[in-house]
Design a protein that fits this description.
The protein folds into 2 domains: 7-122, Alpha-Beta Plaits; 158-315, Vaccinia Virus protein VP39 (Rossmann fold). Helix content is 28%, strand content 28%. It has 9 helices and 14 strands.
Length: 316
């Protein structure tokens, strides 16, 4: 954010199922960032409720966001203030699909540009995931813990570990590592590198992260160095199926239509006896994704759900 530019802070509460649509609208409207907060689900001290449950029971029901809602905070240039009516109109169009979305007031307040980093960073605290990991912002000192601390700075890349889609993947990776030796892992759409780095810290010997966003590539590499795993992690912009070979574990935390589009090379990357973890899937697209993956020869092994999100586990 430009230091001398005036900004406004827009806040609204929406159903979790509408989250992606609203975030996409705000970003396309010019938001420099959108903060997502799940009231009552994630502990500030990092030692409270484990987001994805005990990994020895990962096939069971994951902890629920009891509110079923998410608080969104977006920062836009003050010159975009005229978009308030457009945003209200957008919410009105969503009302038929998400009844009650108009019940929450949209708040817009002036905010100094220099508060941007402080506001965003203040909301992200060390977070316990599974039984062994703790994700800690790179600028925070972790609390005393017996957990493996993973230090992450996402920059503009996706992946802080606080969302179910990421946390469930890490818990499943932890469960698999506890069951068997994992020599290799492929992370399709690595973002900040959090899944590949977490896997390496949990004991996976080698990881490859694929990412098409060049800024995210740089963040993933820096995070690998930050966690002392750069010598075991390769980050590349090459497409999946571009000669990486097969892997004991393949994980893809992507939107459903991208998973469907990449289903063939993703499934081909899973070694015999390996595992495929898919996340970022809204429940309404679960059947489509499941049908496509099984059509490529993999069998559904388990699933995890939270609100409208689904994480799926497959084996050859």
């Amino acid at each position: 954010m430009a230091e001398n530019q005036e900004w406004v802070e827009l806040t609204v509460t929406v159903p979790v199922a509408a989250q992606d649509l609203v975030v996409d609208w705000l970003l396309e409207a010019g938001a420099s960032g959108v903060q997502e907060s799940y009231p009552g689900l994630f502990p500030a001290d990092g030692e409270g409720e484990v987001i994805s449950g005990d990994p020895s029971e990962w096939w069971g029901e994951a902890p629920k966001n009891k509110s079923g809602k998410v608080d969104l905070t977006a920062w836009l240039p003050k010159s975009y203030l005229s978009l308030e009516n457009d945003f209200q109109g957008f919410l009105q169009r969503l009302e038929a699909r998400f009844p009650g979305i108009l019940a929450h007031k949209v708040s817009i307040e002036n905010v100094p540009a220099q508060d941007w980093n402080a506001n965003w960073k203040a909301t992200w605290k060390p977070t316990a995931i599974g039984m062994r990991l703790m994700v800690c912002p790179s600028w925070e000192e972790p609390p005393e813990t017996d957990r493996i601390v993973m230090r992450i700075d996402p920059g503009m890349a996706f992946g802080t570990g606080t969302h179910f889609t990421t946390a469930s993947c890490l818990s499943l990776i932890e469960e698999i590592v506890e069951k068997t030796t994992v020599d290799s892992l492929l992370d399709v759409g690595t973002g900040s590198g959090i899944l590949a780095i977490g896997a390496l810290l949990l004991g996976v010997k080698r990881a490859v992260g694929i990412e098409v966003d060049l800024d995210a590539l740089a963040e993933a590499r820096e995070n690998a160095v930050r966690n002392g795993v750069a010598d075991r992690m390769t980050v590349t912009s090459a497409g999946v199926g571009s000669g990486e070979g097969q892997f004991d574990v393949v994980v893809a935390n992507l939107v459903a239509h991208t998973i469907v589009r990449l289903a063939k090379p993703i499934c081909q990357a899973v070694a015999d006896g390996g595992w495929l973890i898919l996340s970022g899937i809204l429940a309404e697209h679960e059947e489509t994704v499941d049908r496509e993956i099984q059509a490529h020869g993999l069998k559904r092994h388990a699933s995890m759900t939270e609100d409208s999100w689904v994480t799926l586990l497959y084996r050859p």
